[in-house]
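Hi everyone,

Forwarding the result from last night's run.
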Amino acid sequence: MSMKKFFIALSVLAALFMMVAPSQANDGLPDLVPANSFIIPVVVAMDGSLDTIVALHEVAGLGSQTGVHAYWIHWILRDWNSGEIINDHIGYTPYHVVTMAVGASIIFPRLGADDPDVLALRADLDGDGTFDHYVAYLELQDTTGSIAKDSVATTVNHLVGNFYWADVSGGIAAGSPAAGREYLTGQNYHPYQKVPSWSAAGLPTYTDTDLGTLRTSAAGPEAWSALAYATSRLREESLGDPAWTSNGPSSGPSTRFIPRWWLYTDTGLNTMFIWKSRNTTAASTSSESPGGWTGIPVEAWDNDENSVSRDIDLPYEINFFRVRKILPTDYEPTTLIPNKGGWLDIQIPASRYSWAVDMVGWSWPRAQSANAQLNWSSLLEIHKDIGTLAGS
């Protein structure tokens, strides 16, 4: 190709890039845009070798540490059932990067291994029958106010978050974008696109402030539920709005988590994590007391299109399970036949208002051995398949 043609091609490409519109958020699920609050799963090795590293950076030139408009990151470390363990604030200024190591700066120095709340976080992630890690989750909220403890949540989407599960000495480190929740403002959002309130009986409640016009004037945090995403999809495709009722539709959209599993060798591991915004909800067909989620159907597939039916329990807000625990032994790798893989079809029943619950999942495949040079890990957000709603 001549230099003239080469530069013409570059000019065409440049023109195409200039015509691309800025990225837009897809309401109803965490996506890679600036946000207002975050959920981050926490894994910390009990011996301190692996830690959860959090990094939030300010991208809009906002922030201050003086006066009534000082800005803070309010972080809360929560246990499996969403109980608060400890919270604090970190101040920031424009374009600042806020970082924290959950184990090194919170769990070990501020709580200690003998703290009852820390003992309750112990988990056996490698399946040898011995506790080896702490599992929890972080909730982070952007706030403003002259005094940190009295600061209130902002309504600005101007933070970007990432987190890393890092064991540098062991040769294992992986990261992922933090699950960022936007604050929805304006008057053209359906009530189903926002986080509902929940009654003591475990029922979701959606408020339409304009009495049926579905142009709600009340701003609020974005929901990550199946109902929120299905509603957004209807509106984006100009298929109308779903009919509004205070407790949601009589039959909500379904949710499937469909992660890839992979076991690198006979010592390889793969742990799945699923966070839910509620650990107890009412049965949608009765007025019974709220209950947990047990016996969730899972179809486990291998790479050769063989499948077996299994089930798992998701009773907490932060849930986790080892893939090996639900796979038949002939799906697992051996020293002679390494590198086994497949996928899981985790079918969330809609019978407990699951379509109103925010859910996010992560898959953590990794290899561990005595030789650190052979170790590796990856951290992937799990794909979801959401059912549909009927529009007006």
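The chain has two domains: 37-179, 189-392.

Cheers,
N.
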